[in-house]
Write a structure and sequence with these properties.
Elements: H1 4-8, E1 17-18, E2 21-22, E3 24-25, H2 36-48, H3 59-79, E4 87-90, H4 93-108, E5 114-118, H5 127-136, E6 139-143, H6 153-159, E7 164-170, H7 182-191, E8 196-199, H8 211-214, E9 218-222, E10 233-237, H9 239-244, E11 255-258, E12 263-265, H10 279-295, H11 297-315, E13 321-324, E14 333-338, H12 343-351, E15 355-356, E16 358-360, H13 365-370, E17 376-380, H14 387-402
Parallel strand pairs: 3-15, 5-6, 5-7, 7-8, 8-9
Antiparallel strand pairs: 1-2, 4-10, 9-10, 11-12, 13-14, 14-17, 16-17
Helix pairs in contact: 2-10, 3-10, 4-5, 11-14
Length: 405
C-alpha cells in the first residue's frame, strides 16, 4: 500500500486552490504532475552543470555530457533495453513515431505494401503512417474493436498477408484505458517477419514495461506523462533496426564527418539526435525515473487499479451515464457520456468545483466514431490521487448533472 499523503507532499501543485476549491487533478492521461525532486534536479543542472553536451573539453561540458548519458542509462534500465545505444532521446511520443516513419518507413515500405494499425490508435500513430502511405502508394489496414473497446485479435491475425510490412499498435488506449495484448500481437507479427512499433505513451507511466520480454522492435513514450518535463521523449529501437535506418534530421552531432561531397553519419544513438538535444529535460526525465522507481511500478499500478475500481463502482449508479470503454483489462482511465449533456459542459462545470478532467475526442476520433459518441468526459488517475478525491469528483459530477435534470 502506498503512503499517498507522503507522496502528495512531493507535488506542490496538488495544494492549489481552483475557484476556491482544492484542486482534484484527474487529467493525468494528458500530462502528469511533477514532484519537487524532479524540479530540484532541473534547478541543480541549470545552476551548477549547464553547458552543451559532446565535444566540449571543459568541466561544465564534460559534466553535462556525463549527466545526459547517465539519464540514457536510467531509461535503459527502466525499460530493460539490452543496450543504452538503443535509447534515442526525442521531443516526445509523436516525435518518436515520426522518427520511425521517416527513418524506417520511408526506406523499407513501398508501393502496394501494407501497414497494420488499430482502431484504438491515437492520431499520433495514424497520421504519420497515412502520410507515408500517400507518399509511397502503400495501404493501411485497421484492426477493429468490439463494443467494450477491446481489439479483435482474430481479425488482427487475418489482416496479415505477403504485403504486410509493418505493425503499429498502442500499448494502452488513452481514450478508453484498454490494455492491449501486445506481447501476443508482437509474437504474431514476428512469426511472419513483420516489425512492430508500440506506442507506450499511456503504459510507461503506469505499468512495468520490459523491452526484452515484449520483444518489440520499437517502443515510444513521453516524459511529461511520467512525472518528467515536457519536450522530452524516448524511442527505444532494437540496435539492428536503428543501424539500418536513415536519419530523420540532419545537422550537428549526428555525423562523423562532413564534406560537400559526402557526409558520414554517426553511430547510434547519436545518428538520430541532431543538434543540441533537450539536455535539461533528459536529465529531468532521469530524475523522474528515479522517483517512480523508488516508489515501484507494481505498487503504482496496484494503487491506480484500486482507484479505477472504486470510481467505476461509484459512477455506475449515476442515472443516464454510460461508461465508454469496458475492457476486461484497463489502466486507470474512466471515460463516459451522459445522455443529453455535452462533455464540454460537464468539464466546464466540474472545473468550477476544482475538478480537472479532459473532454473531447482525445485525439482518437476513429474510436469515437466506432463507439458512436462525438466525445467523452475522461477522468484519469495517478498514484498521487486518493479515494477522497474520487469521492469529491463523484459528488461534484452528481451536483453538475442535477443542473441539467
Amino acid at each position: 500500500m502506498l503512503d499517498v499523503e507522503r507522496i502528495r507532499a512531493d507535488f506542490p501543485i496538488l495544494g492549489l486552490q481552483v475557484e476556491g476549491k482544492p484542486l482534484v487533478y484527474l487529467d493525468n492521461a494528458a500530462s502528469s504532475q511533477m514532484p519537487r525532486q524532479v524540479m530540484d534536479r532541473l534547478v541543480r543542472y541549470q545552476t551548477t552543470q549547464h553547458a552543451n553536451v559532446n565535444r566540449g573539453v571543459h568541466y561544465l561540458s564534460e559534466t553535462a555530457t556525463a549527466e545526459y548519458e547517465q539519464s540514457r542509462r536510467k531509461v535503459q534500465h527502466f525499460i530493460n533495453a539490452r543496450e543504452d545505444r538503443e535509447v534515442i532521446f526525442t521531443s516526445g511520443t509523436t516525435d518518436s513515431i515520426n522518427l520511425v516513419m521517416h527513418g524506417y518507413g520511408r526506406k523499407f515500405i513501398g508501393p502496394g505494401d501494407e501497414i497494420i494499425l488499430t482502431m484504438l490508435e491515437h492520431h499520433s500513430n495514424i497520421v504519420p503512417w497515412q502520410m507515408l502511405a500517400e507518399e509511397k502508394g502503400a495501404k493501411i489496414r485497421v484492426v477493429p474493436i468490439n463494443d467494450a473497446g477491446e481489439l479483435r485479435i482474430d481479425e488482427y491475425d487475418r489482416l496479415f498477408n505477403e504485403r504486410t510490412k509493418f505493425v503499429g499498435v498502442l500499448h494502452v488506449s488513452n481514450a478508453l484505458g484498454t490494455i492491449n495484448p501486445i506481447k501476443q500481437m508482437i509474437a504474431a507479427a514476428h512469426q511472419r517477419g513483420v516489425p512492430v512499433l508500440i506506442d507506450g505513451a499511456q503504459a510507461a507511466p503506469h505499468l512495468t514495461v520490459d523491452m526484452q520480454d515484449l520483444d518489440c522492435d520499437f517502443y515510444a513514450f513521453s516524459g511529461h506523462k511520467l512525472c518528467g518535463p515536457t519536450g522530452i521523449g524516448v524511442l527505444y529501437g532494437k540496435a539492428e533496426f536503428l543501424e539500418r535506418m536513415q536519419p530523420f534530421k540532419g545537422g550537428g552531432d549526428m555525423i562523423l564527418s562532413v564534406t560537400f561531397e559526402k557526409t558520414v553519419y554517426n553511430s547510434i544513438p547519436h545518428k538520430f539526435e541532431a543538434g543540441t538535444p533537450p539536455i535539461a529535460a533528459a536529465i529531468g526525465l532521469g530524475a523522474a525515473i528515479d522517483y517512480l522507481s523508488g516508489i515501484g511500478m507494481s505498487a503504482i499500478a496496484a494503487h491506480e487499479h484500486r482507484l479505477l475500481e472504486y470510481a467505476t463502482g461509484q459512477i455506475r449508479d449515476i442515472p443516464g451515464l454510460r461508461i465508454i470503454g469496458t475492457a476486461a483489462h484497463k489502466t486507470a482511465v474512466l471515460s463516459f457520456e451522459v445522455e443529453g449533456v455535452h462533455p464540454h459542459d460537464i468539464g466546464t462545470l466540474l472545473n468550477q468545483e476544482g475538478v480537472a478532467v479532459r473532454t473531447g475526442h482525445h485525439c482518437a476520433q476513429p474510436v469515437m466514431l466506432r463507439l458512436k459518441v462525438p466525445a467523452t468526459t475522461r477522468a484519469s488517475f495517478a498514484f498521487y490521487n486518493t479515494m477522497a478525491e474520487v469521492d469529491a469528483f463523484i459528488a461534484s459530477l452528481r451536483a453538475v448533472l442535477e443542473i441539467f435534470r
